[in-house]
């Protein structure tokens, strides 16, 4: 069975980042392609942080070869790899990871997944306390993505995104130390107006937030929420607009830092000062 563009790209990135070691060094095109084939041949094995693959070289066949060709040159155009192994071997088929590509591959916010289980594991690892209802919608989104139902994927992802925000509001509303500051949010009728009002109120309190929450708050909360909601709205209404697989894949990735930031806020707003000035943690 042929593999998707995302599966081929993820296998290639895992090899380049050193998360998977293959028999042949990925220093030229053919060796790199054989390495991706080896990854697919071992996909049913138990995953670990670094996998050593050995044995008779596998090879990609049919459509997978064409997909790998596309992935390879996309990685080149994106600046992740550059041609030539060194100054003595400057030409294709030799290549190497660029300095820019190395920074990308070592980034802590890069998420790689190829099926429902690997995506679920990434989310649970990032947000161990994620709500099981949210997880249902995320699994449905990933299943839709794998099946090629991109509209369904973006709608389910939008539902999971809004559900997470509503869980945050539920936490705040249940905490008398914080709920008065955000009471105006509950008066808004649409989710968009609720989000905008919440962000306005949160900005007034931003100096009181812990540094880990303030870091990338605008990007990982308001920015990502807006992106996912916009795509969800385009997909959920009969506008005829259809996002492509690459856009959907990016949205699935973006949900993870968004969710991490939201649960940092949820944990923060569970805290309530008692009469003595100490901090207690409220049960959900």
Structural class: mainly alpha
Distance between the termini: 45 Å
Count of DSSP helices?
Answer: 12
Low-confidence stretches are 46-53, 273-284
* Rg, alpha carbons: 22 Å
**Largest sheet strand order:** 1-2
Strand runs, count: 6
Based on the structure, what is the oligomeric state of the protein chains? single chain
Main beta sheet = 2 strands, parallel
What does this structure look like?
With 284 residues, the chain is mainly alpha-helical. It folds into 2 domains: 5-105, Arc Repressor Mutant, subunit A, CATH 1.10.10; 116-281. It is built from 12 helices and 6 strands. Helix 1 (5-17) crosses helix 3, helix 5 packs antiparallel against helix 6 and helix 6 (132-146) runs antiparallel to helix 12. The chain is elongated. Residues 46-53 and 273-284 have low confidence and may be disordered.
Helices and strands in order, then pairings?
Layout: H1 5-17, E1 20-21, H2 29-41, E2 51-52, H3 63-77, E3 81-83, E4 95-97, H4 99-105, H5 116-126, H6 132-146, H7 150-173, H8 183-187, H9 191-205, H10 211-214, H11 217-236, H12 245-269, E5 271-273, E6 279-281
Parallel strand pairs: 1-2
Antiparallel strand pairs: 3-4, 5-6
Helix pairs in contact: 1-2, 1-3, 5-6, 6-7, 6-12, 7-11, 7-12, 11-12
Question: TL;DR?
Answer:
With 284 residues, the chain is mainly α. It is built from twelve helices and six strands.
Spell out the key features of this protein:
284 residues, mainly alpha, Arc Repressor Mutant, subunit A, 2 domains, two-stranded antiparallel ribbon, 12 helices, 59% helix, disordered C terminus
């Amino acid at each position: 069975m042929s593999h998707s563009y995302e599966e081929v790209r993820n296998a290639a990135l895992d090899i380049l980042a050193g998360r998977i070691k293959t028999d042949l060094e990925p220093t030229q095109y053919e060796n790199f392609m054989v390495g991706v084939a080896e990854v697919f041949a071992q996909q049913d094995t138990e995953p670990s942080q670094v996998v050593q693959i050995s044995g008779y070289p596998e090879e990609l066949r049919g459509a997978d070869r064409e997909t790998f060709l596309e992935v390879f040159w996309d990685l080149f155009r994106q600046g992740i790899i550059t041609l030539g192994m060194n100054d003595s071997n400057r030409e294709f088929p030799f290549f190497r990871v660029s300095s820019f590509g190395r920074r990308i591959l070592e980034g802590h916010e890069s998420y790689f997944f190829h099926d429902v289980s690997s995506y679920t594991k990434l989310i649970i690892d990032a947000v161990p306390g994620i709500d099981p209802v949210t997880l249902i919608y995320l699994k449905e989104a990933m299943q839709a993505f794998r099946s090629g139902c991109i509209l369904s994927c973006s709608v389910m992802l939008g539902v999971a995104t809004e559900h997470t925000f509503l869980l945050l509001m539920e936490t705040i509303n249940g905490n008398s130390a914080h709920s008065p500051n955000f009471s105006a949010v509950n008066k808004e009728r649409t989710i968009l107006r609720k989000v905008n009002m919440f962000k306005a109120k949160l900005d007034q309190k931003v100096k009181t937030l812990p540094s880990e929450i303030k870091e990338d708050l605008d990007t990982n909360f308001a920015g990502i929420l807006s992106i996912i909601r916009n795509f969800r709205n385009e997909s959920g209404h009969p506008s005829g607009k259809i996002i492509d697989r690459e856009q959907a894949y990016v949205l699935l990735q973006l949900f993870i830092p968004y969710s991490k930031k939201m649960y940092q806020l949820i944990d923060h707003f569970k805290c309530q000062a008692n009469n003595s000035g100490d901090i207690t943690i409220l049960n959900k």
